[in-house]
Design goal:
The complex is a heterodimer of chains A (about 170) and B (about 525). Chain A has about 170 residues and is α+β, with helices and mostly antiparallel strands. Chain A contains seven helices and four strands; from the N terminus they run ααααβααβββα. In chain A, helix 1 packs antiparallel against helix 2. The longest helix of chain A is centred in the N-terminal third of the chain and has 12 residues. Helices cover about 25% and strands about 20% of the residues of chain B. Chain B has 15 helices and 23 strands. The chains are: A alpha+beta (about 170), B alpha+beta (about 525).
């Protein structure tokens, strides 16, 4: 995600679903201060919707009783929070040194070609999002990308094609 | 005052107060340590690193804002290595700064500018392009933000979180993309917003009202008191006379005063300077015709002399204590009734816990000190039998019910209006005499907490508006004393609460009349 993204409206209110509400209630008991739920609260939102909308930030601020600007600050500080909708499959390609030396650029170029979108874009059908990210801490096994929650390591062009073919 | 301890700054032995941090302790003895993010009202944040100093025995440079003074501490401020620390911090601050001082409103009162002149490199070593950010952002409440000039000290953010507790601002993004901003569609919305312009050490926050109006180095400042409400915040009146133009006030700024307002003031009070320039009464009137001030005055004297014992005087609750005393003498001279009725000045529900008070009169406490009645019924019954009414800058039309009632009571009477502004009465009264407003005279006012503060004269407007006490002396046919010195002597003799006041040495922070004077 680009660092310059502003909060985007989803144009529908955000509410935790039953499962996340239970997780949230459990988190509430874990810290002495509700403000500590800023980061985990944002994670729950992202798990539920895949991204964090304007409305969701307002919702979280109200739930944990802190100013909405404080939620906004945290959500924009960490690049792993998506402030815009992402596709069903979110490819986060590592562009830091170790992966780059082992051919990361080639992997990114291949993905760009195969998915038909540039880094930072989401495909029109909402299926794919491609993002360049900094080090994901998997330097010994580069080049790599993160597809949704999973790491795919020691990538080659063939391996990427294989992964793409397997996607439901 | 707490215990004094001895410390050493640049080889100089100093006595400083214990328990304070280096910035505060040293500023009390006149030594300024450069800093951006620290503000005495907001505490330390330690994000700007500008106040790095070398403390003997410490592991590396220390931030002065979070280093408490200790007995025997040795601090180096002006050594070459200390200057080098500052130079390096400034170099970082200026990497993406647009260096637009010639068109920046803060130029002349900018900390970044001052410190760079003192310690900075003269030439930039940066070769890469600067990061461009947004300019002229409207944050609401008249606050204009320039993201490129910002040094991210977070004073504004902390002010809105700690002082007003409205928290409209935050610092979003990171690294060189970091910027101060509001949550989209939620602009700053509180009654103290323009304080962020004052506390911003650089030109990032400017006031929509003041920007591009004046260069700060052309203006003179006078210490005075805000007349916006009964709190009486200490202020600086910044004024200037441009070539071929009349002298005028350009802004009010809060003046630090722990006894009254701390470091801040409300927006309404700050912008009340406009009233000093607008809608002023400039012409005298007699027998419903425009006349010279002297003619109007002598007609008023004739009217009053003819109606001895049947005159009612209504004095403004915002005039100085001295002026109220002169009004009292004037009423006594004509054997009339003096009232300070001013219920219309109270705006219910307009006060808060910070500074704003419901009472919009600046000196109501003095009415009580001088024993001037503020009773509505007494005023009305006296008005019924009166022939001449002298309204001394008291606006009786502030509430609709008062306006109706007093208009009816004034009907068929000779009304003399002495005032600084063109309120409704300036049109309806038969005799009108203009007078100076509070940036144009000197005196004292007593606030809601019984703190007596001095108002100083910033602008002389003798040309069309004499000072109220001069107007009143003229109305008495120069029979009463109106010089400040004489009135003050008389006040000390007649008012017990003012007996101990040393009129020539009123402290800048004011004098608490309830004891515990500072």
């Amino acid at each position: 995600m680009s660092a310059e993204v502003k909060p985007t409206r989803a144009n529908k209110p955000f509410v935790f679903n039953a499962e996340n509400e239970a997780k949230f209630q459990k988190l509430l008991t874990r810290y002495p201060d509700t403000a500590a739920l800023n980061l985990p609260g944002l994670w729950l939102i992202q798990q539920q919707d895949g991204w964090i909308s304007y409305e969701a930030m307002e919702y979280l601020a109200e739930r944990i009783n802190i100013p909405v600007t404080q939620v906004y600050e945290v959500a924009t500080f960490y690049t792993m929070y998506n402030l815009q909708p992402v596709g069903k499959y979110h490819f986060q390609v590592c562009r830091t040194l170790s992966c780059e030396l082992r051919g990361g650029e080639e992997i990114l170029a291949h993905l760009t070609k195969k998915l038909g979108i540039k880094p930072g874009e989401t495909s029109k059908d909402g299926r794919y999002t491609l993002t360049k990210v900094e080090c994901l801490g998997s330097c010994g096994s580069g080049p790599m990308f993160q597809l949704n929650d999973d790491y795919h390591e020691w990538l080659t062009v063939e391996k990427v094609d294989e992964i793409l073919a397997k996607l439901p | 005052m707490s215990k004094l301890i001895t410390m050493n700054v640049d080889g100089q032995e100093l006595q400083v107060e214990e328990g304070k941090n280096l910035i505060d302790a040293l500023s009390a003895v006149g030594i300024h340590i450069p800093h951006f993010c620290y503000h005495p009202a907001l505490g330390f944040d330690g994000n700007c690193r500008m106040c790095l100093v070398e403390v003997e025995g410490a592991r590396g440079p220390q931030i002065a804002c979070n280093t408490p003074v200790k007995e025997g501490m040795k601090v180096s401020l002006s050594s070459e290595s200390s200057m080098n620390l500052r130079r390096k911090v400034l170099e970082f601050e200026l990497i993406n700064h647009p260096l637009d001082c010639p068109i920046c409103d803060q130029a002349g009162e900018c900390k970044l500018q001052d410190y760079y002149m003192e310690a900075g490199l003269s030439k930039s070593r940066m070769e890469v392009e600067k990061v461009a950010k947004e300019k002229n952002l409207d944050f609401g409440c008249g606050v204009v933000h320039d993201q490129e000039r910002c040094v991210l000290c977070a004073r504004c953010v902390r002010f809105l979180r700690k002082y007003t507790k409205t928290a409209e601002l935050g610092i979003v993004n990171r690294c060189d993309k970091a910027k101060v901003t509001t949550f989209p569609e939620k602009p700053i919305n509180n009654r103290y917003a323009l304080n962020v312009v004052d506390i911003c050490p650089v030109g990032a926050m400017t006031s929509r009202d003041f920007r591009f109006k004046q260069r700060v180095w052309f203006m003179s400042s006078e210490k005075s008191v805000c007349h916006g409400c009964a709190k009486g915040c200490s202020i600086y009146v910044d004024h200037n006379q441009e070539k071929y133009k009349a002298e005028r006030v350009y802004r009010f700024r809060p003046r630090e005063n722990a006894q009254v307002n701390g470091h801040f003031m409300c927006d309404a009070g700050r912008l009340s300077y406009r009233k000093e320039n607008e809608n002023r009464l400039t012409t005298a009137k007699a027998s419903e015709r425009f006349e010279a001030v002297d003619i109007a005055t002598s007609q008023a004297v004739a009217l009053l002399s003819a109606a001895k014992g049947k005159a009612v005087f209504i004095v403004s609750p915002s005039w100085t204590t001295e002026q109220m005393a002169v009004a009292k003498s004037l009423a006594t001279h004509y054997d009339g009734y003096l009232s300070g009725y001013a219920d219309g000045y109270i705006v219910k529900g307009d006060g808060d816990d910070l500074l704003l008070k419901e009472d919009k009169a600046a000196n109501r406490a003095s009415l009580e000190l001088l024993g001037i009645s503020t009773d509505r019924q007494k005023l009305i019954s006296n008005l019924k039998t009166a022939e001449v009414v002298v309204v001394l800058n008291n606006d009786l039309s502030l509430t609709a019910s008062d306006k109706r009632e007093f208009e009816a009571l004034f009907a068929g009477k000779q009304v003399i209006f002495v005032g600084s502004h063109r309120i409704a009465l300036a049109d309806s009264a038969q005799t009108v005499i203009p007078c100076a407003s509070y940036t144009e005279y000197a005196g004292v006012v007593v606030n809601v907490d019984s703190i007596l503060q001095e108002v100083t004269c910033a602008i002389e407007k003798e040309c069309f508006a004499r000072r109220p006490e001069q107007v009143m002396a003229a109305l008495s046919g120069n029979a009463i004393k109106a010089e400040l010195g004489a009135v003050r002597q008389q006040l000390s003799a007649s008012v017990p609460a003012l007996a101990q006041v040393d009129w020539n040495a009123i402290p800048e922070n004011g004098l608490n009349l309830k004891g515990g004077a500072q």
